[in-house]
Structure formats: C-alpha cells, structure tokens
Design a protein that fits this description.
- The complex is a heterotrimer of chains A (about 250), B (about 240) and C (about 650).
- Chain A has about 250 residues and is of the alpha+beta class.
- Chain A is about 35% helix and about 10% strand.
- In chain A, β6 and β7 form a beta hairpin.
- Chain B has a single domain, classed as 3 helical TM bundles of succinate and fumarate reductases (Up-down Bundle).
- Chain B has ten helices and no strands.
- Chain B starts with 7 loop residues before the first helix and ends in a 5-residue tail after the last helix.
- The N terminus of chain B is likely disordered.
- The chains are: A alpha+beta (about 250), B mainly alpha (about 240), C alpha+beta (about 650).
- Chains A and C meet through α1, α2 and α3 of A and α2, α4, α5, α10 and α11 of C.
- The structure holds flavin-adenine dinucleotide, protoporphyrin IX containing FE (2 copies), iron/sulfur cluster, FE3-S4 cluster and FE2/S2 (inorganic) cluster (FES).
- The site of flavin-adenine dinucleotide (FAD) has 45 residues of chain C, from α2, α5, β8, α6 and β17.
- Chain C: InterPro entries: FAD-dep_OxRdtase_2_FAD-bd, FAD/NAD-bd_sf, Fum_R/Succ_DH_flav-like_C_sf, Fum_Rdtase/Succ_DH_flav-like_C, SdhA/FrdA/AprA, Succ_DH/Fum_Rdt_flav_su, Succ_DH/fumarate_Rdtase_cat_sf.
Chain lengths: ~250, ~240, ~650
C-alpha cells in the first residue's frame, strides 16, 4: 500500500509549524497507524532527517499516551486509540493528514507531541478520595450497589488521552473532567468530598484555559472509551448542587 | 478572557482554609455557571415564545379577536396590578434574560474561540448544522428582536403604525417583501437555535440522563418545528392572502 | 578483555534483615524493631522515587502522607501512564470472602510453590499478609472493583489456583489500581509534598561515600541534564522484558534505571528468570512493534491445535478433524489445555519448531472456539469473552467466532531484578528497589494476578515502613553539588549521550534492538541450552561493538529526541542481555520460567536441581568488559517443602 502523508512538523513549542508531505510505500494492512509512522521514521533516520515525534507507550489502547488528529478526526476514522487503528482502514493511494491535538491548554511540544499536564492538575485539584494509606476501613464495611459500581467503572475507564479536547470545537475538557467527577461522586467512598471535588476540579479546568462546553457532542463521539455525553450533564448537576450547598 | 486563574497550590488551600465564594460568584466565575445563566434565560425566553406564538395564532380568528387579545394582555393581573403593568414586568424579565443570555454568550464565545488558537488544517465536523450555527443564529435573533420591537411594539418602522391595532399592523407589515424576508430568516434561525438549544439547556442544567437523552433531542426538535411553523404561519398566510 | 564466561563466585549473601521466629510473626517483629523518624523531622528528609507505576505511585503518595519530601520521576508525560496501567486480569488477596478455604497461609503456600521454590519464605508470607490491606486501601480510594448484586466484592479464580481470590475490574484491573495510586499521588503533588517530574528519565545513580544520594536525570523535553539529591533513592522502574524487543510490555519500558544502579554496585538477581505468556496475538510481520496479550482465561474454553502435517497451508476450516493435532490434550491428558503458562508456551514453540505452526511465518497455533460455540451457543461465548474477541478482531481483522484465533507465546514479565533484602534494600545503602524492578517474591515463576499485589504491597505498606528504619539511622547531611562523585556521574551521562549522537552511522537504533531481541528470543527464550547460550554470549558483545560503530541518532540532545532516548536504552539492553545469558548458562537446572533443554525429567518436563541451585543468583558488576562476580543467597524452606511439579 502506498500513501501520501501530510504531517504537522513543528520543531519546538515556540517554533512555527507546517504540514509537510511524505510518501510512504510498502504499508501492510496489518500495521497499526503507529507502526506505519515507525516505518516512515526508520526511513527518515537513515536519510538523515529528523523523525516525526509522537507520544506512545502501551500500544494497546490503555495508557492514553498516543493521539493525533487523522484526517480531521481525533484518533482517526475508527472509534479507538491511534495505536489500535490499523492501516486496513485506509486505501492504497490515500492522502492522510496528521495533526497534533490542538488546544490552548495543550501546547505543542514538538510535531505531534502535546503537553497534557493540565489534566494532571485537574485531578490534583480534587480527583481523589482523601484516604491516607493504612486508614482504610475493611473493604466490605461499605457495600456499593451494583449499578453505582458499574457507573463508576464505566467512567473510570477514561484513559486521559485528550481526544475529547481535541475533538471539541471549543477545546473543552468537560468530558474528561466529568468522567472523573462521576466516577468518584457516585461511590459512597467519594461522598464526603462530593461538593469540594466538583467545585475544585471545575475551577481548575477553567483556570487551565480550556473552553466552555456548548454541548456540541463531538467529544463523546471521539472518545475511544465511550465515556457517554450525559456524563457532562451529570457533572453539571453535581456542580450546581455543590454551588448551592458549599458556601454554607 | 481569563477569569480567576488560581494556581494548583491555591486550589489545594482554597479547599480548606479560605472560605468559598458565594453561590452567585461561584456560578458567574465558572464556565458551567455562565452556561447555566444562558440555559435559564434561554428557557425563560422559550416559555415567552411559546405563549407568544399561541397568542399570535389568534390572528386567524380575525382582527376583532386578535386586537381584543392584545388589549387583554394589558389587563392581566388587574386589579392587583395597574393597567399594562404585567406587560412591563414581563418586559423587564425579558430584557434581563436577553441581557444575561447575550453577555454570557459573548464572554463564553470569546473564551471558547481562544481555547482553540490554531485551527485544524483538515476539518471534518460531525456536529449538526444547528449546533455549528448557534452563535450566528444568536446574532440574527438579537438583530431581529431589535427590528421586531421597532416594528410591532414601538411601531417606528411599521408601514401602518396604528397603535392599538396590531392586526392591521401585522397584516400591513407582511405585504412588504423585505419584512417577509426578515421574519422568515429570523424564524428559521429561531428553529435552528431551539433545535440545538433545548437539549443543550437540558444538558447544562443537568437534566439529561443516558435514558432521557433521546427524549430531550426529540422534544427539542418538536418544539423547534412547532414554534417555527406557528410563527411562520402568520407571514405566510398574509403572503398567500389567507389573512387580509 | 576477559570473557563473561570467566565469572567468579564471591562471598555468599545472607538476607540479614528477615527476623527470626515463626514466619507469621516476622513482619510484626520487623515493624516493631524498626527505628522511627519523628514526624516533626520528616519534612527534613527527602526521598527520590523513580517510577510512578503501582509500586512507585503508591510509595510516593504514602511517603508524602507520612511527611517526607518526595521528588518523583517518570518518563511518560503523566504519572498515570506507567506500564502498570496495562495489567488486565486481576489482583490476588487472601480475603477469603468466598469462604472457600483461602487464608494467608494458603496464598503464601501457593506463591512459594508457584515460584518453583526459588523465592524467600519470609518475604512471601509478608506479601500474603499485606494483600488483605491492599484491597481495603484500594476500595477506599474508589477503585471500582467488580461487585455482586448484593453490593459486595466479586472475585474469580486465576491461573489454576483452587480458590477464588482474584479481585478484578473487568479486564482493566491494572488501570483501575494505578488510577487509585495516581490520584493519591496527585493529591500530594497538588499539596506540594511531592515534586513531580514527568517526562524526565533517570540516567544514573549518584553514590557518595557508599550511600545512594541522588540521581542524574534528563528532561526529555528540553534535554537538560539535572541532578537531584536525597537521603534515599527508591527505584520503582518496572521490569526489563523489553530487552527482548517484542514483549507485552509498554514500548518504552526499559532497564536503564536498574542497570545503571547495577553498574554502580547494586547486585542483579536471577536475571534469567523471565516469564513467557502462552496466549498472545502472534506477530503479523517485520513491522511488529510490540505484542498484545490475550487473557489466559481463553484457555478455559478454547482448544489448541495445529495441523498434523508439516507446512499444511490450508485454511483451518478445510483441515479435517483427523488431520489436526490437539497437542496439549494429547501430551497432558490430565490438564489438557489448562497446563501452566510455561508448559503451554514451550509446547507451542515445539510444534512451531517442527514446522507445523500456522499463520504468517508459521509462528502461531490455533485456539479454537468452534466446539465451545457448538456446546454453549454463540451468546454464552460472547458473554464470557466478547470483549477479548472484539480486541482480537480489531487487531487481526479475523472473526474468532468463525475462524480459530491464532496465538503464540510472548515475553511478559521478569522475575529477576535488583537484589533486595527483607527491607527492600539493594546492596547499595540508601538504594531501595520495589515492584517488578526488584527480584521479586515470585521466585522462578510468577502466578497470575500476583504482580499487582506485590507492587502495591511494596509501595503502600512495606517500603514506607522499612525506609523509616534506614533514614532514622543515617546522619543528616546535605550533599555537596560539587562533590566529585556528582561531577563524575554527570560527565559520564553527558559523555554517553554525546557519544551516541556522534557515531552518525547507518543503522537505526530500532534495528539493533530488533536484532538483539531475535537473538535473545532464540537462545534465551522459552527453551535454553548450553550451545545456544554460548552462541548468544559470543554474538552480543559483537552486536554491541557494531552498535557503537554504526548506530545513527539524528538531531541533537538539546530538545525532545525520541531516537536518542531509545538508543540510550538499547545500550543498557545490550549489556543486560549478556548477563541474562550468563545467568541462564550457569543455572543448568530447569525451574519455573527458566527451561534448560539439558535438565528434564524422563517425561521431558522441567527438572529442578534443588541441591545444586536452591539459591538466588546475585551478580555483582565489576567493570566494563570484566566478568561479573556471582554471590549466592541460599534459600531455606521451613514451611513449604519443595516437590517436583507434574502435569501429565
Ligand atoms: C499486558 C500485561 C498484563 C499484565 N497483567 C497482570 C495481571 O493481570 N495481574 C498482575 O498481577 N500482573 C500483571 N502484569 C504484570 C504487572 O502489570 C507489572 O508487573 C506491574 O504493573 C509492574 O509495576 P511497577 O510499578 O513495578 O512498574 P511499572 O508500572 O512498569 O512502572 C515503571 C515506572 O518507572 C518509570 N521509569 C522507568 N524507567 C525510568 C527511568 N529511567 N527514569 C524515570 N522513570 C522511569 C516509568 O515511567 C513508570 O512510571 C501484567 C503485565 C503486562 C505486560
Ligand atoms: C429569542 C430568543 C432566544 C432563545 C429562546 C434562546 C434560547 C437558547 C437556549 C435554550 C440555549 C441553550 C443554553 C444552553 O446550552 O445551556 C441557547 C444558547 C445560546 N444562545 Fe440563545 N436564545 C435566544 C436568543 C439568543 C440571542 C439573542 C443570542 C445572541 C447573541 C443567543 C446566543 C446563544 C448562544 C451563543 C448559545 C450557546 C450555544 C450553544 O449552546 O451551543 N441566543 N439559546
Ligand atoms: C411572525 C411572527 C411574529 C409576530 C406576528 C409577532 C407579533 C408581535 C406583536 C404584534 C407584538 C406586539 C404585541 C403588543 O405590543 O401588543 C410583538 C411583540 C414582541 N414580540 Fe413578536 N411576533 C412574532 C415573532 C416573534 C419572535 C420570533 C420573537 C423573538 C425572538 C418575538 C419577540 C417579541 C417581543 C420580545 C415582543 C415585545 C413584547 C413587549 O415588549 O410588548 N416575536 N410581537
Ligand atoms: S473522556 Fe475519552 S477522549 Fe476524553 S480523555 Fe477520557 S478517554 Fe480520552
Ligand atoms: S464537544 Fe465540546 S462543547 Fe461540550 S459536549 Fe463535548 S465538550
Ligand atoms: S499507546 Fe497507549 S493508548 Fe495508544
């Protein structure tokens, strides 16, 4: 398979970037998208050019490190992570545009690598249960109704990849933040910090320079883990509830 | 625009030592809170429009009924309220709503645009047309409201401008091609605005659940359709000669 | 230059820190005899934690909660992405919620036996004791473990154990546990108690006056080399399975931190103990960059077979029953498809070596669900394995409901690692190793769902206790940044990076990694023999030589340069590989994951030699090109008596 790639190349955070065209040949349909880029990079190295930088680690769709916008879609045409996207979804002769996540809160580090540390700070602001090691009660002391456990799990599946931000026309982090807020707020273990958690996480989310949500819904369509759009509504509910209660 | 940019350390402290801001401050400073303002004001305007549309439809019962209805509007609440007071109270509420809605929309839109400083070279939006045109639709609606008030409330730009005779004013209006265009475009914008806005408000206010999502989408579409059709019926009827 | 084969045997080592007495009392005693640091003084102590996986994340959070100042590192952009996130199956704990006869003692017993009697009894017992607290801790953090309708925790059985003691969160247990630790860590980072350095790689250890006092690290974004000082250094940098190039480990997992520590004096224990997982998706071609694990549970219902005839290229559906070889059922009638990991892996290799493998390159065997679907119906199969089938289909584009899956063994876990005593101290005072980075409590073979348990036990409960004792006994003094040892470590690091950039050869780093991996897989993989290991030991130094002459690393070291990172890791892989082969060569017995062709029972199964090899092999580095020194730590079994495993 032969492809024309147009890849965003940007040497550093403050440098200008541009789309650069590369031809790649001999692409097998079994390759993952990242393996296809590996192939390109191997060639660039031997030709003495700088290989394309991109984040990746687990390469099995769970660490959330990888991510690029492929032909205008975060993580590409399939609903999965970039590392789990295979070349069989492209056709011989295709032109493929590859760009980094674009958001003010995710500055480009180099080429397709962006800085997503804003997510870590959102978690640090309240995405936890305060339970110092050793202070935990016996696990069965608090039964958790199965529906709550299932909802928590479904939201905890978020891999923090940032595709939601990349897909959102406002560069909003609402889906990511709501995934964490809902995960912890539906559990009895998360109840004591229910209000402060959502207020602080939303406060940090805003402080990081993410856009607001206009309920566009692109985020949930791009999310490789299927975090549902109504999670945002659930977070809004929590936020409004907390805003009413907290000052007292 | 960047409001409140606390550092992480501030946040950690804020959760403990510093008292939290009031409910209103919390709302107005956050994106979700501002969005809530939009949703609430949007719903208020929506309720007004439903009533307004139903009232407008009385036009099909003839000039007498319609004009009587208009003057009845001024008697609502009597004798507790003086003549016309209800209308003024409503106007104040509406102006506040429009103001709140527009200011929030303006601030949030600036922020949203700043959050994506570099556009994608390859753009392929999946969102519906209605969703993507909310901001322009809003601007059209704002301009329309100004025009509409000058036209039918203050009668400044109305071709007939007979106070107390709304039926005649309306009919006279829609004999003008440009008025027809203005109204039809505005009604279309309204329909699109509500098509997205209704479900959007439900999500902002936290009413959407996984099960209820579809119902809200359907309700939004029905509402958009009914309102647009209900409003459009008037100019179209005049244009086609059904009303005269 | 002396040959690696000329290694010498040095002083034996005794793990002096395990207390005497009944095995069940030892951890209590140790905790009681440990000196404590006054809570008010803890702020004055800094601890460096390298790694944010289950072990490192848990340790960093806990130490900070105790009041220490923590400086922490990971090479990923976020601590949440550590390789632990990929663990699927579950975590063991002796809770006995099922009332099925489980107990701390049984978990202890199973682990020692499962490790083929190459682990320490006192450590394993402690692990089993602490396992119970781990579940409590994680549940309180909000880890969404699977639950029953009554709201209580669900468990399942795993890896052929007879009790149901594995807690799980669908197929994402590692992710959920790691997020729990990461959240606790994030809280401490936000509170300023942990200074977190993501995208920063440790490249050397700073040892001053015999004590580990800091690290040299490289900021992967700016390329800046920095030094960080502390009163103790904890390595939680994971396993070294990636020496094999293709493994189920994350692509960037590496041995750099532990190898550099080894070069600075920390003994490396049992490097040849590597675990191979039988059910992975086979490679699809030369472009393959890593391998994906398919849960072991598939073997409960799938039947494994290959064609009877060599080179039979017919599609599986066209091969009649009579021409199929259900080899596991044939060779091990009692256990059939459910034989342990190592046995299933070797059998697959054997049939493929005979030329009967299937799929591209003949490196695969069928795992067939046709019978299961006929027996249970498609719905039932989908209910049990639906998500795995989906994942398989996504990767291979083959529908396992219609065509048998193809699977092949792959490197999965490393039991070897830095030698540590009962307190998790390495042989360098002040240097601790936790999680997969140490030669862990799993002996020669790890049981399923036990690595997560060990990582969290080390990080939440063991290290935070034992490190107190070390810190309380040290004089408190500042490190002089101009100390010659510091300058030497920095110069060595920059020198090496400069050298890598200067070679400017004609081969990519990846090509060397691939070649090394193939070599190791062939000679130090599922089955090892004298001739093969000697060949590898001859070839590795030559490859290393070639690497330093022909590698091409583009760009500069002053900014994000992923090829430089990779090349730098491969340098360590090239060195560690040699030690692995030497260790495998010297251990002429078969045990656990280490199978020597020469040491078999009459039935052809692995045969241990307890008399000769009932020890931990701890290797000491003696200099570049110099042969290492072997220190033996004898293993004593008071409670679990060694027996030979048999599955026929
Ligand atoms: C696919 C797969 C499935 C598994 N499933 C299970 C299971 O079901 N049950 C089970 O018990 N076990 C399982 N395991 C094993 C288990 O996941 C690992 O053994 C365990 O997670 C290791 O944790 P760790 O904290 O020691 O290291 P890791 O999670 O590997 O973390 C290493 C950390 O060190 C950092 N690091 C490494 N080198 C450096 C450096 N030089 N400088 C700075 N930072 C560095 C990394 O950034 C990372 O943060 C599985 C393993 C794999 C590969
Ligand atoms: C006629 C009256 C109007 C009605 C009934 C109305 C209604 C609504 C509703 C219900 C929403 C959804 C709120 C939410 O998402 O939570 C909304 C959103 C919005 N409105 Fe209006 N609105 C009106 C006029 C305007 C005007 C005059 C503007 C203009 C400037 C405007 C601009 C917007 C914008 C920008 C949004 C957000 C877009 C989004 O949610 O995607 N609207 N409107
Ligand atoms: C074709 C459709 C419409 C017709 C025929 C119509 C007619 C009228 C008339 C006759 C009045 C004056 C009532 C009175 O003063 O007694 C009026 C007022 C008003 N209309 Fe409409 N209208 C239409 C659509 C709309 C739309 C779409 C909106 C909003 C987006 C709107 C908003 C208003 C407002 C805000 C007032 C002012 C109320 C007041 O202050 O008294 N109208 N309309
Ligand atoms: S919500 Fe989905 S898209 Fe967003 S970070 Fe989480 S997994 Fe990625
Ligand atoms: S796409 Fe963006 S606007 Fe909201 S619904 Fe998703 S965050
Ligand atoms: S590399 Fe881990 S999710 Fe893609």
């Amino acid at each position: 398979m032969r492809l024309t790639l147009r890849i965003w190349r940007q040497p550093g955070p403050d440098a200008d970037g541009a789309m650069t065209t590369y031809e790649v040949d001999g692409i097998a349909p079994e390759m993952s998208f990242l393996e296809m880029l590996d192939t390109l990079n191997e060639r660039l190295i031997t030709e003495g050019e700088d290989p394309v930088a991109f984040d990746h680690d687990c390469r099995e769709g769970i660490c959330g490190a990888c991510g690029m916008v492929i032909n205008g879609r975060a993580h590409g045409p399939e609903r999965t992570t970039t590392c789990q996207l295979h070349m069989r979804h492209f056709a011989d002769g295709d032109t493929v545009d590859v760009e980094p996540w674009r958001a003010a809160a995710f500055p480009v580090v180099r080429d397709l690598v962006v800085d997503r540390s804003a997510f870590d700070r959102i978690i640090g602001a309240g995405g936890y249960v305060t339970v110092p090691t050793g202070s935990a009660p016996e696990a069965h002391a608090t039964p958790v109704p199965k529906p709550a456990a299932d909802t928590a799990f479904e939201h905890a599946e978020c891999i923090g990849c940032g595709a939601c931000v990349a897909a959102c026309p406002n560069g909003s982090a609402m889906l990511f933040t709501s995934a964490k807020v809902v995960h912890l707020n539906v559990l009895p273990q998360g109840a004591p910090e229910r209000e402060s958690r959502v207020l602080d996480m939303v406060g940090q989310m805003d402080a990081e320079g993410f856009g607001g949500c206009t309920n566009t819904g692109e985020c949930a369509v791009a999310c490789p883990k299927g975090i549902p759009l109504p999670s945002i509504a659930a977070m809004n509910r929590e936020f409004l509830r907390a805003a009413r209660k907290a000052p007292r | 625009m960047r409001w409140c940019r606390p550092t992480v350390a501030d946040m950690a402290l804020a959760t403990r030592a510093v008292p939290r801001p009031s409910t209103l401050a919390t709302l107005w400073r956050s994106t979700i809170g501002k969005k809530t303002v939009m949703a609430v004001t949007g719903v208020v305007m929506l309720l007004f429009l439903v009533a307004h549309m139903l009232g407008n439809l009385k036009i099909f019962f003839g000039a007498g009924d319609y004009n009587a209805y208009a003057s009845w509007l001024r008697t609502i609440g009597e004798p507790a309220l003086h003549h016309g007071w209800f209308l003024w109270i409503m106007r104040v509420g509406l102006v506040a709503s429009v103001a709140g809605h527009v200011v929030s929309a303006w601030q949030l839109s600036r922020r949203d645009l700043a959050a994506r400083p570099t556009a994608y070279v390859h753009r392929r939006p999946r969102a519906s047309y209605a969703t993507r045109t909310m901001r322009w639709g809003g601007v059209i609606l704002a301009l329309f409201i100004v025009w509409h008030i000058l036209d039918l409330t203050t009668l400044t730009v109305n071709p007939r401008a007979e106070p107390g005779h709304p039926y005649e004013n309306v009919v006279a209006d829609f004999h003008n091609w440009y008025a027809d265009v203005i109204y039809l475009v505005a009604m279309l914008a309204l329909g699109l605005h509500i098509r997205h806005g209704f479900r959007s408000a439900a999500q902002t206010l936290g009413a959407v659940t996984r099960r209820g999502d579809r119902a809200f989408r359907i309700a939004g579409n029905v509402l958009a359709l009914v309102l647009t059709a209900g409003f459009v019926a008037v100019p179209v009827s005049v244009m086609t000669g059904v009303l005269n | 230059m002396t040959s690696y084969l000329d290694y010498s045997v040095g002083e034996p080592i005794a793990d002096t820190r395990a207390p005497e007495g009944p095995v069940g009392d030892r951890w209590d005693r140790r905790r009681f005899t440990a000196k404590l640091v006054n809570p008010a003084n803890r702020r004055a102590h800094t601890v460096i934690v390298v790694g944010t996986g289950l072990a490192g994340g848990a340790a960093g959070a806990t130490l900070a909660e105790q009041g220490y100042r923590v400086t922490q590192f990971c090479y990923q952009d976020s601590p949440r992405r550590a390789h632990s996130i990929a663990a699927q199956g579950g975590i063991n704990a002796a809770k006995n919620y099922r009332n099925d006869g489980d107990s701390v003692h049984r978990l202890f017993y199973d682990t020692v036996k499962g490790g083929d009697f190459r682990a320490r009894e006192s450590n394993v017992h402690r692990l089993a004791e602490v396992s119970v607290q781990i579940i409590d801790q994680c549940v309180a953090q909000g880890v969404p473990f699977a639950r029953e309708y009554g709201g209580l925790l669900d468990t399942r059985s795993f890896g052929g154990v007879q009790v149901s003691r594995t807690f799980y969160a669908r197929g994402q247990t590692g992710q959920q546990l790691l997020l729990g630790a990461y959240q606790a860590l994030s809280r401490q980072i936000a509170a300023g108690a942990v200074e977190m350095h993501p995208r920063t790689e440790m490249l050397d250890l700073i040892v001053i006056d015999g004590r580990a006092r800091g690290i040299v690290a490289r900021d992967l974004v700016t390329g800046r080399i920095s030094t960080h000082f502390a009163d103790a250094v904890v390595l939680a940098t994971g396993g070294y399975g990636n020496v094999f190039h293709l493994s189920t480990n994350a692509k960037n997992s590496n041995a750099t931190a532990i190898w550099r520590a080894h070069r600075r004096g920390a003994y490396f224990a049992n490097p040849c103990f590597t675990q191979i997982h039988p059910t992975c998706i086979p490679r699809s071609g030369d472009h393959q960059s890593k391998l994906t694990l398919m849960s072991e549970s598939l073997r409960n219902d799938g039947r494994i077979w290959v064609p009877k005839a060599k080179g039979d290229r017919r599609p599986p559906g066209e091969i009649p029953q009579a021409e199929r070889d259900y080899y596991l059922e044939r060779i091990y009638p009692a256990f059939g498809n459910l034989v342990p990991r190592d046995i299933a892996s070797r059998a697959a290799k054997n049939v493929c070596d005979e030329g009967r493998g299937v799929g591209p390159g003949g490196q695969g065997v069928y795992l067939d669900f046709a019978d299961a679907i006929a027996r249970m119906g498609r719905e039932k199969v989908a209910e049990k394995y639906g998500n795995l089938f989906e994942m398989y289909e996504r990767i291979t584009a083959e529908d396992p409901y219609r065509v048998p899956m193809r699977i092949y063994p792959a490197i999965h876990y490393t039991m070897g690692g830095l030698w540590v005593d009962y307190d998790l101290r390495t042989t360098i005072p002040g240097l601790f190793a936790i999680g997969e980075a140490n030669f862990s409590d799993h002996g020669a073979n790890r049981l399923g769902a036990s690595a997560l348990m060990q990582g969290l036990a080390d990080g939440y409960f063991v290290l935070p206790c034992t490190i107190n004792d070390y810190l309380a006994r040290q004089p408190r003094d500042e490190v002089d940044p101009a100390h010659p040892a510091v300058t030497e470590a920095v110069t060595r690091t920059t020198g090496r990076l400069d050298r890598l950039l200067a070679v400017d050869g004609d081969r990519t780093p990846e090509s060397f990694h691939r070649e090394l991996g193939q070599l190791l897989w062939e000679h130090c993989g599922m089955a090892r023999d004298d001739a093969g290991l000697r060949k590898a030991l001859e070839r590795i130094p030559a490859l290393r030589e070639e690497f330093w002459q022909r590698v091409k690393v583009p760009g500069t070291g002053e900014r994000l340069n992923q090829q430089l990172e990779k090349a730098n890791r491969i340098v360590d892989h090239l060195e560690l590989a040699e030690l692995m082969c030497l260790d495998a060569l010297h251990r002429t017995e078969s045990c656990g994951g280490h199978f020597r062709e020469e040491s078999r029972t009459p039935e052809g199964e692995a045969a241990r030699k307890d008399e000769e090899f009932g020890y931990v092999a701890a290797w000491e580095f003696t200099g570049d090109g110099a042969a290492p020194v072997l220190h033996k730590e004898d293993l004593v079994f008071e409670y679990v008596h060694p027996t030979q495993r048999s599955y026929a």
